[in-house]
Specification:
Elements (H helix, E strand, L loop, with lengths): L1 H4 L3 H23 L13 E2 L9 H4 L7 H22 L1 H29 L4 H5 L2 E2 L3 H14 L4 E4 L4 E4 L3 H14 L5 H20 L1 E2 L2 E2 L17 H17 L15 H4 L16 H21 L5 E2 L7 E2 L37
């Protein structure tokens, strides 16, 4: 009971909409006779009714007419929605669901139309191919998990199979690509492809993270969706494509944080830090530098808590004549994982040290 009580309003609303539209679609399919106008499936998008049924591009992403797949998708929406609503907030979750569902449906419709043109005008693609389903939204949530908790693992069959969360979108993409090639699925594959693509573009370039627009981390780059052995080919192509889209003003020009070079820069406000249009070389070195910078900031804050503090070369902060500051004596100035930081004793309450 406590689990369902913790489900936010946005997730509940999405579950209610998906359940209602799916059940109504199942009811229409079983009671209304199929005809050329397709009114037995009024909530799914059809290429031939692109203009007359514009609402279907909003509703189609919530419709699942297979009862077993419907239960699976509702369960996935419950778990993913509950998590991301707590992390992103209700408004951001609602925006994410709307964008993914609408754009995935529109792009899938365009793809089916090109299939119609390439197939020498097979009218079944125009009037009998129904576009929709919740698999696009679920695949988009996999991209969200890749960005939020990439190093977590999903254990299957009693921990016999362990899959890193960061690999789940790639596995879903490849799986549906194989199913599409063997014609096991059709529209569902397009919804998955575009769900992954739309969600990655939105989170990578447009969504705000702690006040910063986009996520330019190496672990969430386009190349991270591919094996490391292919990066020599994929990365130059993706960089060239990105630069082209930026020049056409289709994507914003973003960049990672340029790390500060002194403890004064470390304590500066985040919005005053400079940015560079290209990623820093050597992601491991950049991460180590970032951690060292955070350690220096922590050291500065502790030194400002009171006067008479000293930082001996041994690395421990001790109280220098102030009994009220003895609580800091047991705290290490800089954790070992941030690298070695040496500082000379502080005189007159001012810090002096070297920034390696």
């Amino acid at each position: 009971m406590s689990f369902f009580a913790s489900v936010g309003l946005g997730t509940r609303g999405a579950l209610a909409i998906a359940t209602a539209l799916s059940l109504l679609s199942i009811l229409f399919r079983t009671t209304v006779k199929e005809s050329l106008d397709g009114w037995n499936r009024p909530f799914e998008a059809v290429v031939g009714y692109l203009v007359s049924r514009a609402w279907t591009y909003i509703t189609a992403g919530f419709v699942e007419t297979n009862p077993i797949l419907l239960l699976f998708c509702l369960g996935g929406l419950l778990l993913a929605g509950r998590y991301f609503e707590r992390v992103w907030g209700t408004r951001e979750l609602a925006k994410f669901i709307f964008l993914v569902n609408t754009l995935s449906t529109v792009l899938s419709t365009v793809t089916v139309f090109f299939e119609f043109v390439a197939s020498q005008q097979n009218e079944d693609l125009l009037y009998k191919t129904y576009i929709g389903g919740m698999l696009g939204l679920l695949s988009a949530f996999l991209v969200g998990f890749k960005q939020a908790i990439p190093e977590h693992s999903l254990n299957l069959m009693g921990s016999a199979v362990s899959i890193r969360v960061k690999n789940l979108p790639s596995i879903a993409f490849v799986s549906f690509l194989v199913l599409l090639i063997f014609r096991v699925v059709h529209v569902d594959a397009f919804m998955v492809f575009y769900g992954i693509t739309v969600s990655w573009i939105y989170i990578r370039f447009f969504k705000y993270h702690d006040g910063i627009r986009g996520d330019r981390s190496e672990s969430f780059s386009f190349g991270s969706f591919f094996p490391a052995s292919t990066h020599r080919i994929i990365v130059p192509i993706s960089n060239s494509t990105f630069n082209l889209l930026v020049s056409l003003n289709l994507l914003p020009k973003l960049a990672p944080v340029t790390l500060p070079q002194s403890s004064q820069d470390v304590s500066a406000e985040p919005h005053l830090r400079s940015y560079s249009p290209k990623p820093l070389p050597g992601s491991d070195a950049a991460e180590a530098e970032r951690r060292r910078a955070l350690a220096l900031k922590s050291l500065d804050m502790r030194l400002k808590e009171g006067s008479g503090l000293a930082v001996p070369t041994g690395g421990a902060v001790v109280a220098g004549g102030s009994p009220g500051l003895s609580r800091d004596a047991s705290r290490p100035a800089t954790p070992a994982r941030f690298g070695a930081v040496e500082a000379s004793p502080v005189a007159g309450g001012k810090e002096s040290g070297s920034d390696e």
